[in-house]
Amino acid sequence: MCRPGGDPEQVGSGDASSEDAAFAALLEDSAEDLYDSAPCGYLSTLMDGTIAKINTTLLKWLGLEREEVVGAVRFADLLTVGGKLYHETHFAPLLRMQGELRGIALEMKAVGGRRLPVLVSSVVKHGSGGDPLLIRTTVFDASDRRAYEQELLRRSKEAELARAEADRARAQAEETRLQAEADRARLADALAALQQSLVPSALPAVPGLETAVHYHTASPDRLGGDFYDLFSLGDGRWAFFLGDVCGKGPQAASLTSLTRYTLRAAALHDPEPTAVLSVLDTVLHDRYAAGGDPRYCTVIFGTVTFTERGEAAVRLASGGHPPALVMRADGQADYLPTPGGVLVGIVPAATFTLAQTILAPGDTLLLYTDGLTEARTGPTRQSLFGDEALLAFGRGHASTSAPEVISALTGLMEGFGDGLDDDTALLALGVPRHPSDPRPGNE
Amino acid sequence: MDIRGRNNVTVAGPVDGPVVVLAHGFGCDQNMWRLVVPVLAERYRVVMFDYVGAGRSDLSAWSAERYSALDGYAQDVVEVCEELGLRDAVFVGHSVSAMIGVLAARRAPRRIGALVMVAPSPRYIDDDGYRGGFSAEDIDELLESLESNYLGWSAAMAPVIMGNPERPELGQELANSFCATDPDIARVFARTTFLSDSRQDLKDVTVPTLVLECAQDVIAPREVGAFVHAAIPSSRLVTLPATGHCPQLSAPETTTDAILEFLRELR
Predict the structure, then answer these.
(1) Fewer beta carbons within 10 angstroms: which end of chain B, N or C?
(2) How far apart are alpha carbons A263 and A272 in whole angstroms?
(3) CA of B216: which chain A residue's CA is closest?
(4) Which residues in chain B have their CB less than 8 angstroms from residue A84's CB?
C-alpha cells in the first residue's frame, strides 16, 4: 500500500490525522511485537521438547514468567497429566512421523491450578540438510469451544441415554405384551377345558334313536351358560336334559357344573323327571338362595324308553324352560306344553308337572335355549326370532331326521349373524324311519 | 481365521534372517517402527503387525471382552508367531507391548527366545512403595483427553494427514492409524494399558532380555526401568540418551544400535 502525498493540508480533511495515527501504528507493528502480543500463544521448542522461545500472550495466559520457562521446561511439562500422556502416546509420535499437526485439543496448566483448554498446532522446522531442528507451535484459547464441545458431548450422551431408556421401555412393553398374550392364551385354554367339562364331548350312540346337538358360544373367551347331556340309565332307558343357568362366566360355570352333576346323580337314584327337578331345586336352593345369593336355572329333563314297536316314549318335566318342539313324521309340529314349571332353585320344594309324548318313527323332539328364540332378526335387528317363527320352522322341517333339523337350524342361526348374541344350545332326538318307509319327499 | 489379515502382518528383510518381531504400544500402530526397520531389515527378518483394534487390523475381530486384558493382546502375538511358524524369535515390544511380550513368552516359550522391552512399565499407577508415576485420576484425565480429541480429530486431522503432499502413502496409513480408530476401542486399550499391573509377571521371564529406557520419559520414568531390570535377573538395562516415550522415533539411530548390539550378543 502506498500513500500518496504526505502533507495533511493537501488532504484537507478533519479525519486525516486519525487515519495517519492508525497508519503509523501499523508501520510500528513490528514482527517481534506481532509475535509477542499476538492474539494466540506461540512457542518454539527443541526436538526434545525443551522450550526455546515463548510469546508474552501465552505466558500471560499461563501466569508464568519467561525465565522460569525458557530453557527450563519442556512443552509437555506445561500440560495436564492426561494431556502429557496423550502428548507422549499420540501427539509426539504423529508429529515426528508427519512433521505437522493441527488442531489437537489439550489442556495446559496455569498458575493456581487453573486449566486452560487449548487447540495446538505444531510444525517441525527442518534445517537445510533436512534434519529436524525445532518445533514451532501455536496455541489457541479453546475455553469456549471446549465448553461447547463438552455441552455437545453431554447432550449426545443424554440423547444416547434417552435412546437406551426408550429401547429398554420398548423392550419391556413388548415383553409385557407377550406376557399378556400368553396369559390370555392360557386363560382361553383353561376356559375351553372348563367349558368342555360342562357339556359332553360327544353324545353317546343310543340304539333306536337319532341324536344331534349344536352349541353356539356367544363369546369365545367367555364361559357359556347353556348345558345339555344325554346318558344311559341302564336297561335300555336313557335320560337327557338341556338348560340355561342365570349369568355367565366362572360363577355361571360353577352353577352349571353343580346342576349337571346333580341331574345325573338324581336321575340314577330316581329318574322320574319331576323328582329329578325337585332334587335339583333343593340342591340349588340350599346352595345359593338359602345363603342370600339366589341363583337358578331353567331346564328340561326327560327320559326315553322304547316300546316293543320301536317307538320312543318320552317323559319330561320343565323348570321354567321354553317348551320342547315335537315334529311329526306327517309334517305336523307343535310345542309340548309343560305348564307350571318354575325356575329351578328359587323357591324351596318347588313342584314340577310331567309331560309325555310318543315319538313314532320319523318323529323328532327338539330342545333349545332361548338364545335361539330371542335372537334378534330383521333388517334393524330389533325384532326377535320368536316362538311362532320356530314353530313355523318346525312345521317346515317336520318329517326330517334329527341331524337334518340341527343342520337346518344351524344354517338359520348363521344367517342371524350378530343378531345371535347369546349362547344357544340345541338338542334333537328322533326315531329313525323304517328303512322300508320312504320319506314323502323321496317318493 | 486369516491371522495375517486380521493383524495386518507385514514382513521385511531376508527370508533366512533371524526373526525380530516389532510390536507397537498404545496409541499407534506398526508405523512407529518405520525409522528402525530399514537398518534392522538389512540382516534380520523383521515381522510387524497391528494389534486387533489398532491400525489396519480387522476391527470386526475386536471384542471388548478379549481386549480388556493384556492376555488378549498376548494371544494376538502368539497367534501371529504360530501363523508364521516362528521359533526363538526376538520380540521387541514398545511401551505396553513390552509387558505383552512377557505374557506371550510365557504362553509360547519356544516361539519367543529373547525380549527387548522399549520404555516398559509393569504398573503406571503409584502403589505402596512403588512409584509408577501416575495416579488413577491421571488415567481418567487421559481418557478425557482421548475423548475430547476424537471430536476434533476426525474433522480437523483427517484432511491434514490425508493431504500430506510429500508422503501420501504415509498420510493414508496415519489416517487409518489415528483417525479411523474407533474411540471405544481406544478407550478400552487405554484402560487396559494404564490400569494393568504386571509386576508379578516379570519374575517369570527367563529369556535374555534387554530393557531400553529413555533418559527422560514421563510415561516410564527411570525408577520404573530400574524396577523392571531388577525384577528380571536375565536382563540388561540400557539408558538411551533420548527424551520422551518413543525413542524409536526421537532417537532412531541410537535405539537401533542398542537393539542390534543385543541381537549380535544373542548369537
Answers:
(1) C
(2) 11
(3) A48
(4) 218
pLDDT at A16: 66
| ipTM score for this prediction | 0.82
- Whether residue B213 lies inside any domain: the answer is yes
CB spacing of A88 vs B218 below 8 angstroms: yes
Can you tell me whether residue A324 is helix, strand or coil? strand
CA-based nearest residue in chain A for residue B162? A98
Which residue's entry shows cell 323328532? A364
- Classify residue B14: in a domain, yes or no: yes
Q: Which of A51, A79, A90 to mutate to test the interface with B (most CBs of B within 10 A)?
A: A90
Question: Which residues of B are less than 8 Å from A113 in CB distance?
Answer: none
Cross-chain residue pair B170–A98, CB shorter than 8 Å: yes
**Catalytic residue set of B:** 95, 217, 245
Is the CB of residue A441 less than 8 Å from the CB of residue A387?
Answer: no
Nearest to A88 among B32, B170, B244 (CB): B244
- Tell me the CA distances in angstroms from B202 to B95, B99, B206, B217, one per residue in order: 15, 8, 9, 21
DSSP string, B229-263: HHH-TTEEEEEEEEESS-HHHHSHHHHHHHHHHHH
CA distance A75 to A156: 33
CB-closest option in A84, A98, A107 to B174:
A98
B130 falls within a domain: no
Edge-first strand listing for the sheet containing A424-430: A210-216, A424-430, A364-368, A324-327, A333-336
**What does the mean pLDDT of chain A come to?**
86
Give B50-84 pLDDT, tens digit per residue: 999 888 899 899 999 999 999 999 999 999 999 99
Residue in chain B lying closest to A147 (CA): B148
In a domain, B178, yes or no: no
Residue from the list A97, A100, A103 with its beta carbon closest to the beta carbon of B152? A103
A98/B141 Cβ within 8 A: no
Q: Which CATH number do you get for residue B61?
A: 3.40.50.1820
Domain A200-442 is of which CATH architecture?
Answer: 4-Layer Sandwich (3.60)
Q: How confident is the model at residue A231 (pLDDT cuts 50, 70, 90)?
A: very high
Mean pLDDT of A99-113: 87
Report the CATH fold assignment for A17-141: Beta-Lactamase (3.30.450)
Domain ranges of chain A: 17-141, 200-442
